[in-house]
Every structure is written in C-alpha cells, then in structure tokens.
Amino acid sequence: MADKVAPYYDEEKVVVAYQIFCPGCGRTHVMHFRPYGKPGAQWVFNGSLDFPTFTPSINNRSGPYPPGDEREGEFDVCHSFVENGLIRFLGDCTHALANKVVELPDFPDKLKPKLE
Ligand SMILES: [Zn+2]
Prior knowledge:
Blueprint: E1 6-9, E2 15-22, E3 27-32, E4 44-45, E5 54-55, E6 58-62, E7 76-83, E8 86-89, E9 101-103
The structure holds zinc ion.
C-alpha cells in the first residue's frame, strides 16, 4: 500500500509537517504538527501513513479572486476532517466534494519532496 501522507521539510531538512493530496482541490494541503515553534495552525497527526488522522479539522481558504474575475472577491474554501484514511468534506467547501466522504488518495510520487 502506498502512503497517503508525505513528509514536508523545512529549509534545514527537518520534518516539520505532513502533507496530503486533496481530491477536492486537486492539490496538496500541508499540516504542521505539534510542537512546532512557529506561529500558525498546528495539528496532531496519529503517525499512520496508511490510515492517517489529523486533528483538528483542516480549513483551507484561498483568495479572494482579483477584480475583473467572474468570482471577484470570493474565496475558495476547503474544510475537512482527515480520519483513518478518509477525508470528510464539510458543507462550507466551495468544490464539488462538499458534504462527501472519500478515501484519501495515495500521495502522488511526483509531488513527494526530494532531499539532495
Ligand atoms: Zn482541499
């Protein structure tokens, strides 16, 4: 079984976070874990690469869309719980998987970080 979670390294090649490939957004989300001595959101990870759980929820906002865009001023929202290898999307997601529970996909090889 391939891993659903990949490590995320800081500039000193220390693992400071884990990342998943979000099937709702079609891109990665990065979760820094506790304890991490920098400001920002932090998660508890159960350590399982096959059946990962992150707590609390993952709430990813991007935007707003720039002036002139047809979605000017709007944000993309992806709000989910990753639990035992499943990703449960909440109703405030702006993508097609809102209110759905799906299996977390294997983390794509081509996106795995490479240490030199
Ligand atoms: Zn997402």
